[in-house]
Amino acid sequence: MSEIATASINTFGTTSPKADFVPPSERLITMTIGQLQDLIKEAVEKAILPLQERIESLEATVARQDEKIAALESTASLHEENLFIQLRLIGQLREAAQKTATPPAPPKGTKTLARLAKIDEILKTRRATTLKELERILGIDRATMTRLLARLDMRRYEIHSRPGDDREKVLRLKAQIR
Predict the structure, then answer these.
(1) Using CA atoms, how far apart are residues 44 and 24, in angstroms rounded to an integer?
(2) Are 170 and 160 in contact (CB under 8 A)?
(3) What CATH number should be reported for the domain whose range is 110-173?
(4) 93 three-state secondary structure
(5) In the chain, where the domains are located
(6) Cβ atoms of residues 169 and 161 within 8 Å
(7) Which tens digits make up the pLDDT trace of 73-97?
């Protein structure tokens, strides 16, 4: 009876295990080399398929990015050309503004000669006038008047003090003998 008890403990049920039982993972299979190659090829294709799809997706993304970059480069080039044109126009406007803002300077000494002629006209009509009055009429300051007096032909003009007030100077034409 001990043999029956031992046998039923080892079997876990009504059927007893066979002595030549081999688990499925350790069974031997007979295949041809072609079948093995096909099996490996199929397994590799199944393993590679998601990677190939991912690569194709990434290549499409790169192609789209290249198109965007090309579009941005052409836009940047256009902006660069526009900026260059704008800078050139700004330069032209500045030059035009400077030309209109500052009239061309008359030749050197033109103002002085015009002022000397004006003094001569005033003295011909009045015969004599104070230096302050000449400064007011000509719209010049004392320093400019001093420079004009230095340019006068003193053979024709004379400067003297005003009678009764030595602080004020008078310019007059000299009497000319003909």
Answers:
(1) 23
(2) yes
(3) 1.10.10.10
(4) helix
(5) 30-104, 110-173
(6) yes
(7) 999 999 999 999 999 999 999 888 8
